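Narrative summary of target 7.
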Amino acid sequence: MMQSVKADPQLLIITRDEGLLRQVETTLGKMSMPYAHVADPRMIRDFLTSETTEIALVDTRIGMELVEQVCIDIRKVAGPDRLAILVVVGEEMGDAALTSLLFAGADGLVGHSLKPLSFKARIRAHLSRIAAAKKLALRVHDSEVLIDVTSRLVGSADILDNLYDVAVLIAKELDVNRCSVVLVRPQGDFGLVVASSDDPELRSLAINLKRYPEIARAVERGQPLIIDDILNSELLAQVLPSMRQVGISSVALFPIARQGEVLGVIFLRFSDRRAEFEEREMVFCQTVANAASIALRNAEILELLKAKTREIEKVQTEARDQLRSLKQYEEFFLGALDGMVALDQSGRIVFSNPKASELIGVDAALMKGTLFADFLIPEEKGAFETLLDEFVRGEARRSMDFSVSENRKPRRVMAISAGSLFGEKGMMLLTMRDVTEARLTQQQLAEAQRRLVQSEKRAAMAELAGATAHELNQPLTSVMTTLAMLRRLLAGMDREQHILSTMEQESERMAAIIRRMTKITNYSTKSYVGEAKIIDLENACLSDPEEDEN
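Modeled conformation, tokenized:
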């Protein structure tokens, strides 16, 4: 059975010899090497799947047949390069036995009388060999993947399909939550997401780079940008709430450059924090970015970017026209005590006054061009769309409460209504007011009213119970006195005495119920028949009056 285990063992000791185990433990302790000890060779399969186990030390005293089988099993599972096998042999073993161990897969032999310096040197040598073999295997693997990437990108098929395949491949290789390929306009103001590992249909999503300062920085400098912890990044301070909402902890960006011009980035987002990038990962991602740069010489995708640029410029022109029409109301908007937001027909923000920016907690420049619904908590977005639909259909205007999506407790509640923007066609005006305190006061008032009703119920219940107990106590006392007299008159009559005993027991039970009624402090009910309720005397007598009642 397994006797000793250290976390993430690098070395697996298979022996039943306590003396040998102590020797090895002493040497490993000085090397600060974690290990696992197994006395039963049949249990080693649990360790063979662990990437941390790099050396197996097998004692021949468990039996030569078992040792050879262990060596064969390890080689089948771990292969020749992932794990080294050292066999502990006795001086009495002959050449034939030693040779058979080497043929079974052993990498080396050591004597039972371990010499610490020699043993440590052997261990370190095998660890170095294993590390070199793993590094070489990773390089070979990366080379194969990069060849696959290059062949996909320079192929004659649809380059958008190829970019999606590459994004999926990178996400899988580096354990990324989302890998996106983003092209940028030469002006550096808008980008175009042409591929994303989590959405095969995403081909041309325009994004405002004001909301993606990390992309703007990577494009500006033309160098990889790694942000291992978004919480401590000054660059992302303005957009931190939206990034935390979608569960991002770390980001990495690799520029796609061609002849000194940055065409875009490969954008990686991680939900778990990435403390650092290994050199091979950096080289891998930048090599893919360079291959993408070569592929993007294809005029078709650049034409897509140009077409999207024209579309964006058209939208911007329309937005400028709308803003000019709003100019005459600027002073009114800026001085309004309520938050005001103008939306276009798609629900995107065209203008917001300072009060709206304050209420939502986002700079006005970052709000512009963003869907207003994105600032609400996810579960309320559907209700907001309903409010806008009612406005479009010309139904009566009404105000609804919505919670702003931010990390505050209690969550800020806004009363929002939609209306026409002074007759401007196709534009909506949202007015909002912070009603967090008011709603909290309403809740407290409702709770106070509930407690008052319960208190009145308890008082009425106590009064009724006291009166009922008083009225029942007198006839019950008379009944119990009569039963006592009958017991004396019917002395010696066993059958009648048994009946009297039953009547006395039930009378005592009634007396106990009456006593409990005088102790009622709470209003508590329980189910009786069907949906009917009756007073629960047990809880009514024992419960804390401040506890929630049924």
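Residues 126 and 534 are 79 Å apart (CA to CA).
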